[in-house]
Amino acid sequence: MRDNRFSILLRKSGVWLSAFALWALLLWILSGRPLPEANTINLPGFDKILHFVYFLIGAFLLSIALYLRGLSSWYRNLLVVLISVAVIGALDEWHQSWIPGRSGNDLGDWIADLLGGIAGALISKSLHSLRKTPI
After folding, report:
1. N or C: which end of the chain has fewer CB within 10 A?
2. CA dihedral 14, 18, 20, 21 (to 10 degrees)
3. This prediction's pTM
4. Sign of the CA dihedral running 88, 89, 91, 96
5. How far apart are CA 80 and CA 4, in angstroms?
6. Among 69, 67, 55, which Cα is nearest to 112's?
7. Residue extents of the structural domains in the chain
8. How far is CA 85 from CA 52, 90, 100, 109, in A?
């Protein structure tokens, strides 16, 4: 019975939308902090990978929430996800520009955000097409 309740909960768009809101709040909190002085991983472009993965997760959450609402076509949902990711990514860069020790306004970070958003939406789409019933 417990598994059934969890399954029912995962089929509610509000749960996924709440997770997306928490994702956005966490992004705001993380980008409002100065960068750590000691960078633990010294790989070229590692920050772009972090942006890509973080925005992939956000786009995935929002895409599932929109899909479960069933308000429009997948292409319209994709457009909403991409516009949302683009705006949130731009706001994130602007926010970072006010934080000491952060650069902000990095076009490469914003592009990584967009690419991660596209990947998250496409992963969500592929999961939707694998299942006849909503997640």
Report:
1. N
2. 130
3. 0.84
4. positive
5. 31
6. 55
7. 2-130
8. 11, 8, 24, 12
Helices 74-96, 107-130: crossing angle, 10 deg rounding: 150
**Tens-digit pLDDT string for the chain (135 aa):** 556 776 777 788 899 999 999 999 999 999 888 776 655 677 788 889 999 999 999 999 999 999 888 866 788 888 999 999 999 999 999 998 888 878 777 899 999 999 999 999 999 887 766 655 554
**104/17 Cα distance (integer angstroms):** 27
Q: Which tokens go with 117?
A: 């958003």
